[in-house]
Amino acid sequence: MSFRIHVNDRPFEDAPRAGQCLRTYLRERGWFGVKKGCDAGDCGACTVHVDGEPVHSCLYPAVRADGRSVTTVEGLASREGELHPVQRKFLDAQGYQCGFCTAGFLMTTAALEAERGTAHDDGKLDDLPRAFKGNICRCTGYRAIEDAVHGVQHTERPCAGKSVGRNVGAPAGPEVVTGRARYTFDIEVPGLLHMKLLRSPHPHARILAIDTSAALRVPGVHAVLTHEDAPATLYSSARHEHPTEDPDDTRVLDDVVRYVGQRVAAVVADSEQAAEEGCRRIEVTYEQLPYVTDPEAAMRPGAPALHGDKGPQARIARAADNVAGEVHGEIGDVERGFAEADLIVEDTFRTQRVQHASLETHGCVAYFEPKEDGTGERLTVRSSTQTPFLTRRALCALYGLPEDEVRVVAGRVGGGFGGKQEMLTEDIVTLAALKLRRPVKLEYTRAEQFYGATTRHPFTIGIKVGARADGTLTAVQMRVVSNTGAYGNHGPAVMFHSVGESFAVYRAPHKKVDAWSVYTNAVPAGAFRGYGLGQVTFAVESVMDELARRLGMDPLVVREKNIIGPGEAMHSPIGEEEDLHIASYGLDQCLAVVRTAIAEDTSEQDVPEGWLTGQGTAMAMIATGPPGGHYADARVSLLEDGTYDVAVGTAEFGNGTTTVHQQITAGALHTTGDRVTIRQSDTDVVRHDTGAFGSAGTVVAGKAVLLAAQSLAERLRTLAARHTGVARHLCVLGAEAVDCAGRTVPLKELYEAGHALGAAEELGADGHWGGSPRSVAFNAQWFRLAVDPDTGEIRILRSVHAADAGKVMNPMQCRGQVEGGVAQALGATLFETVRIDERGEVTTAAFRRYRLPQYADVPRTEVHFTETADAIGPLGAKSMSESPFNPVGPAFANALRDATGIRFTELPVTRDRVWLALEQARAAAGGDPRPVGL
Q1: Are the beta carbons of 794 and 776 closer than 8 angstroms?
Q2: What are phi and psi of 186, to 5 degrees?
Q3: 873, 699 in Cβ contact below 8 A?
Q4: In which band, very low, low, confident or very high, does the pLDDT at 928 lie, cut at 50, 70 and 90?
Q5: How far apart are CA 200 and CA 448, in angstroms?
Q6: Which of 382, 751, 755, 847 is deepest in the core (most CB within 10 A)?
Q7: Which DSSP string corresponds to 4-18?
Q8: Under a CB-based contact definition with an 8 Å cutoff, are residues 43 and 56 in contact?
Q9: Among candidates 543, 552, 476, 547, which has minimal Cα distance to 514?
Q10: Which of 565, 557, 571 is nearest to 499 (CA)?
Q11: Rg of the Cα trace of the chain?
Q12: From the CB of residue 564, how many other CB atoms can be counted at a distance below 10 Å?
């Protein structure tokens, strides 16, 4: 077959494989800017130009590109390296976070820009919801992308030592907008083998036999791995600093499967196609077992015990009753508290499964590299992970390897949201690599992300609140059931965390909780933004709003009457956490922002006639780090060329920590950010880092970086004084030199002096932080909505978010974190849900069936930061990655209650649910066009 294609002006004549799509054809030739996000034309991350027209290359047959010119994001810039105008605009606006989707938005925008003023211009750039209907971003909330398209500049270049508190652009920005940023699979590994997984068709079954002979006869298949090849060791896929936080209930490959989609066997072959064919030819004999998908039913006597065969060493609370973990506690006497109440509000709330939907799917590549000392090889695992160091620790424990024999590294990670605080692929890939002594790759499909990864925990929260007539709380009681799915990864910890700050933020003399994390035969749940707080906050804030309405009081007044204040102890029935403090307090300012928004709002003026309008508020408190210690090491060094190197373990996946670490270093060393290079997320670069989760990137790793940079600054001043003979207090660090009482000592000279004076060790310094003590951050969300009573359609008229982030290290980035959190929470509030059937099988295993927020769905949220400075966080900063999510759902539900008179107690509040509730309310009112209560 004759085939010729030009890619970024370079000719290629090697023909594609039969049925090959253009995306894989391009990536196999090194054009890694073309990303895989969905394999179905849903997300747009793979967008390229074919003869100038934007296409989704995952759907475009490569053979159709014969004789055509293809441009990828790498080809947008000029041959001289000058950025395309659209690339420059995305860079100036920082129209990205993790950046995995950015090439798609760039290519779409560039194509539409090229159409401006031509016969093909149909006005899409003036209608961005239509222009971007084929592109998805999970991180930004789209505002930054809109600003980029419109040429709004946000980034700054502050002078030396003034980086903190400024809108410094991300160091990786130029690589992101040009397609040079390297994510997990953006590497070429010679001799690479590919893995595919055979998954269970049954919700609960014992494997009696596996016949792999036909699979092994498939050309190109090198190995088929089953439970007989895997270690019998039990472990948890969850990654925590202390592994004992999670039950050890998982095996690499098990002879009992506990949900539809659990891996049964792994096929390793020369190509994905051969591995897939190998999976199809495996014959498995199952003994089907009873199953249970409802957590309440799972706890009843006689229910099938998913892990009844495991003993106390697995640390399962009550395996025979399917209880992975539980907590029960009481402060005071709630019955007495309810007896003292003038009003009691009681209801049950339910939240659903939600997928993280990071555009880069789970996966890793394992390969062998020569040791630096030449004594053999060591295993390197390149993974899309938030926890390189904890993953290395787990792999070494699982396979009996010393830590110096294993390196785990994360490239740039395409989104996480807690989903990559797991070891879901590294264990099985390592097994194959060790067996075959060959490089092995496993990359999840989008469908596998839905049924083979993890979800947010579904919760059922029964809540009862008592108050006096003046709104003062007398008692709060909750019964919480969390569905952890087939395995307990994060289950007990999420359950425990969910009833911590959610209780503690309100004063009440009597509090009681009973909570369970329960096994069911369904896809496992795991860590997700908010870590359980969002689910329980939905119930707490909804009931506080209902309480105020029934008392005839302003919901803000009721909150202000009962919230904890500065310096107060935080009381929860699960017990006090001694290292948790209110080290700065901005909750009053958050509520003041909401009060001002309500007073000044005019958004109702544009509502169609007959629509219902309402407004609602919710608030939340979150600890600025996990309990029990979260550790980070950092090293800052002066290099030979007079610039600085920062080595830190935490991963970058759109959380912005790389930028903040650069800003902290530049500030402490009185230099500019462009003179600071960050090396990160690699077990080779520092001694240890717990990981990028629990909003720890700034408050833990950032604190370690600050301590290292401050220590180095002192060392360099001391070295400069020794080199020049000038008093140390007269030596002042500058951007490129030290001013020693008028004598300028370039940093290059100081580096040389350090070696000449035998003081090379003074050219670097270490920092360490253990994550304790911890502070708390506060958030408040307010919405005004309009609802069409005839259709259930909801329009968000205005969205306002107030955030207490302490000293805001980078307002542009922090605003982006808030906007992204609000957007993700709106998805979970309005339509996102991982649906399962009666057997626990996921039925929404694609974006088009799952329904992610797109540009048209997300309002422009007004973000306000409070004026606080934390006594614990680095330079006064607090965390702000997870917390914006938590108050969004209840604020929306409270606004719906205000508009319709109906209390919605289950998420998501889809349009059909709203319409049905309105219809039922009308029927109950005898056909009155307005619902009961209005």
Answers
A1: no
A2: -90, 50
A3: yes
A4: low
A5: 12
A6: 382
A7: -EEETTEEE-PPPPT
A8: no
A9: 476
A10: 571
A11: 28
A12: 18
CA pair distance 755, 550, nearest whole angstrom: 74
CA distance 416 to 652: 9
Distance CA 432, CA 892 (A): 48
Would you give the DSSP letter of residue 21?
A: B
Alpha helices in 262-406 (DSSP H): 272-280, 295-298, 334-339, 388-399
pLDDT digits (tens, 9 = 90+) for 729-761: 999 999 999 999 999 999 999 999 999 999 999
Conformation bin of residue 11: beta by default, left when phi > 0, alpha when psi is -120 to 50: beta
Question: Per-residue pLDDT for 934 more than 50?
Answer: no
Q: Supply φ then ψ for residue 183, to 5 degrees.
A: -90, -170
Q: How far is Cα 413 from Cα 417, in angstroms, rounded to an integer?
A: 11
**Angstrom distance (rounded) from CA 890 to CA 539:** 7
Q: Which residues contact 19 (CB under 8 A, 6 or more apart)?
A: 61
Residue 502 neighbours by CB under 8 Å, 6+ apart: 533, 536, 537, 540, 620
Q: Each residue of 265-298: b (16+ CB within 10 Å) or e?
A: bbbbbebbbbbbbbbebbebebeebebbbbbeeb
Residues 539-563 as b/e (b if ≥16 CB within 10 A, e otherwise) read: bbbbbbbbbbbebebebbebbbbbb
What tens digit of pLDDT does each residue of 832-860 get? 999 999 999 999 999 999 999 999 999 99
Contacts of 752 (CB under 8 A, 6+ apart): none
Q: What's the rounded Cα separation, in Å, for the pair 745 and 717?
A: 11
Q: Which two tokens stand for residue 706?
A: 């600050």
Residue pLDDT, tens place only, 265-274: 999 999 999 9
Residue 930 pLDDT > 70, yes or no?
no
Identify the bridge partners of residue 689 per DSSP, sorted by sequence position.
Answer: 632
Which residue has 């719906």 as its token pair? Answer: 896
161-198 pLDDT, tens per residue?
899 999 999 999 999 999 999 999 999 999 999 999 99
| CB neighbourhood size of 213 (10 A) | 10
Q: Using alpha carbons, select from 731, 334, 350, 790 the residue that is nearest to residue 539.
A: 350
Q: Which helix (H) or strand (E) holds 193?
A: strand 193-199
Q: Could you give the 3-state DSSP secondary structure of residue 343?
A: strand
Q: In this structure, are residues 155 and 167 in contact, taking their beta carbons and an 8 Å threshold?
A: yes
Give 756's contacts (C-beta < 8 A, 6+ positions apart). none
For β-strands 193-199 and 263-269, DSSP reports them as antiparallel
The reported pLDDT for the residue numbered 628 is 87
Joined together, the tokens standing for residue 144 give: 């930054």
Give the ranges where 453-581 is alpha helix by DSSP (H): 491-498, 501-504, 533-551, 555-562
Chain center to CA of 643: 32
In sequence order, the β-bridge partners of residue 517 are 325, 482
Counting every residue, how long is the chain?
934
CB 428 within 8 A of CB 252: yes
Query: What is the Cα–Cα distance from 208 to 217, expressed in whole angstroms?
Result: 22
Q: Do the strands 776-787 and 644-648 form a parallel or antiparallel pair, or are they unpaired? A: unpaired
Torsion of CA 276, 281, 284, 289, to 10 degrees: 50
Q: How far is residue 622's CA from residue 774's CA, in Å, rounded to a whole number?
A: 10
CA distances from 45 to 41, 59, 355, 450, 491 (A): 9, 12, 18, 18, 32
344 three-state secondary structure: strand
3-class SS letters over 296-317: HHHCCCCCCCCCCCCCHHHCCC
Q: Phi, psi at residue 607, to the nearest 5°?
A: -80, 135
pTM of this structure: 0.97
The amino acid sitting at 512 is: K
Residue with tokens 């129209």: 95
SS (H, E, C) 672-695: CHHHEEEEECECCCCCCECCCCCC
Q: For residue 445, give both structure tokens.
A: 């499909």
